[in-house]
Amino acid sequence: MFIKKFLSSAVIFSSLSVSSFAAYADQVNIYSFRQPFLIEPIMEKFTAETGIKVNILFAKNGLIERVKREGKLSPADLVLTSDFSRLMMLNDDHLTQAVDSKILNENIPSQYRDPKQHWFALTTRVRNIYSSAERVGPAADITYQDLASPEFKGKVCMRAGKHPYNVSLLASVIAHEGKADAKTWLEGLKANLARKPQGNDRAQVKAIKDGLCDYALGNSYYLGKMLADPQQLSWAEAVNINFPNQATTGSHVNVSGVVLTKYAPNKASAVKLMEYLSGEAAQKMYAEVNYEYPVNAKVAPSKLVASWGEFKADSIALADIAKQHQTAMKLLDEVKFDL
Amino acid sequence: MISRVNLYKLLPWAVTCLLIAPILALILSAFQIDDSGSFQHLIDTVLWDYSLNTLLMILGVITLSFIFALPVAWFVACCEFPGRSILQWALMLPLALPPYIVAIVYTDLLDFSGPVQHFLRALMGWQQSSDYYFPDIRTISGAIIVLSLSLFPYLYLLLRGAFLGQSGGLFQAARTLGLSPTRAFFRVSLPLSRTAMAVGLSLIAMETLGDFATVHYFAVSTLTTAVYNTWLELGSLTTAAKISSLMLLVLVILISLENYSRRRQKLYQRSGATHTELRFVLRGWRKWGVLTFSWGLLFFAFILPLAVLFYYASIYFSQSLNLSLWKYTLNSVWLAMIVASLALLIALIVNFYQRLSPGVLAKATIRLSSLGYALPGTVVAIAVLIPLSSLDLWFNRQLIEYGYSRVGLLFSGTLFVLVAGYLVRFSAIAVGSIDSSLAQVSPSLDSASRTLGQSAAQTIRRVNLPLISKGMLSAFILVFIEAMKELPTALLLRPFNFETLATYAYQFVSDEMIEYAALPALLIVLMGLVPFIVVSRLMEKAS
Questions:
Q1: Is residue B168 over pLDDT 80?
Q2: Environment class of residue B542 by beta-carbon count within 10 Å: exposed (0-12), middle (13-18) or buried (19+)?
């Protein structure tokens, strides 16, 4: 009797509480590793066109753990990630479900989606090498391997090795060359650093401008953003952007992507949003606003990004890189890269 | 039926159990999962470097905070010099600045591409880094200095309170017996403030141990880094929990040792002239020395970082002004008020339990209720999710069994979990400051009150509470400010569409756009200042 009374009052209470999530047909809940200001314009457009409300919860860490703990009751429909390893973690922890959508299959080339349809990439980003415009000039035939050769001693800057973008690059080197060679490369790279790994991708460009180093690793879209900011324009103009490994394996490419969660309460709307994100309107916004490379072949990169030229991307399967993720993390410990 | 006598014993334990349940749940659930050799890998590679860094950070930060806080607390409490009344509250201001923001400001200012080195290069005609020497800011020393600048006010606040509460007569007696002012300070005043010192330093040590954001900006890897890497990147909860448990163990040992070392010490103040009436008037070089030190400290800990934030905010004002900022400010403020009130309540319950029935058990409740403060925010957040999401799953199963439809995540998906996470993290601050102010109230007052026929409850209400009102106020304010600044717990535990100023600022900080984060960061500081101003007004009225 008491339990029943308690339960019914709880039901009334929860129906009054704003934050409880009944499964409305007209909303989608997203756990996002990507910053809201990057994706909100796209979501607003989606809501305007479909009437489906989008709720976003952003964090850099721990969202996967949260989905896992919430289990069947998780309000999350989609998880958006900014790199590939997180897509694979969601997949490996069985937190996702397959989406069989003709639209997704048409919009996204097959190398950018899971054969079993559990994850989908939305944009790609290149791990570029920046070179000093003043002291080096364009370095069209530079490779990641060059950064570890003795003539680059004291000339290289980069952010922490444990940052997901660098871990992913290292994992791709392991996938291509094996663990032993990758370790030699990593040790050579560490020996060439002008300073201990630190700062973010923009800080590396700044360091080149100030003459601390001549080369730096960085993602392509940061250069686009710096060129668009009047205060940072002069940093960006101090560097040339280069696509590494053009004569060999091709430049390392990472992806941002999306999964549908296993217990998504608003599945139909969520799939609609996934399709929208891969469609031309959204892909164009990714390209123009964030300077990313759209996965949809019908959408061209922004003018600025296109002006950097065509390039050969590493054709190795993303899943093969993801398999080396743990080994890469451990290798970074072994050579004490960030210490 | 539970009798009233039992209730007052049950309540503190219930509170303590609720606060440590998440941490226990984390440790237990961690050891159920098979470890993939990650821990051995860490031992073989970087564990010792990380441990050493953590140890150096803690020792460095508590030493430097002590060097910062002790002189200013003494000057402000016991000396008279121009501007003393401003300094006494202004020195608390650095608490309102989130340490991760201070870290970004200083690394930006002082690294190779920063304005300071730019200026020096332009001035001296240096071309490259090999032409001159400039200390590298992104080192463990840099992290220690910046974290100490952010954390010393805890110790300052508690020490000043202790010095003010001390009878000035004792100091004067020591002087009459032939001690110099310096020796009288070291042999009388300092030992008398041992409790405040211990509480302050252990708060600082815990905050340092749990810090992730600040050391991250300084490119220093500590045990917290290992917890993040193994758990969130390698997916090994077991290893992460093992490291966390180790961290807690070291902390418990350190605090118990400190407690043991002053087990025979019992200090209470009786009536008599306080330092307020016997302030030592400073003149000549002493006055200038004190002024330089105090204002210099305030400049680097507060004024300079604030000025940099103002500069960024003014340049990017139009881009960062956002109508929703008002809503986020309100969210931050009322959340912080709820958390501060509840933390104060918890602190009173736990501390009065210790006062009414002193002993090992009571001590244990105090120590245990404070553990959450030493863990990194993201770890606490996930730890809180474990029991609450299980509760939700159970509750929904019950609902369905009794014929209702499920309600979803009533506990772990609402603000409930957010408040719980904050309390696990910040109760330590309130418990500590109440502990230290209650320690100065002599139990003979309690005995007198009881002898005069007052009940225990009446004694608390009519004797103890009025005497520790200042301590209660500072406990409330400290938790309020911490809650305003808190980032990782808020980020991970908040419901959809709920932003605080800190989470809003973070989306820009995490995309390398500190300039856009400056305005919300300034709002965090301003909102943190409001209670300071209220308190300083109250203090003026009182004196």
A1: no
A2: exposed
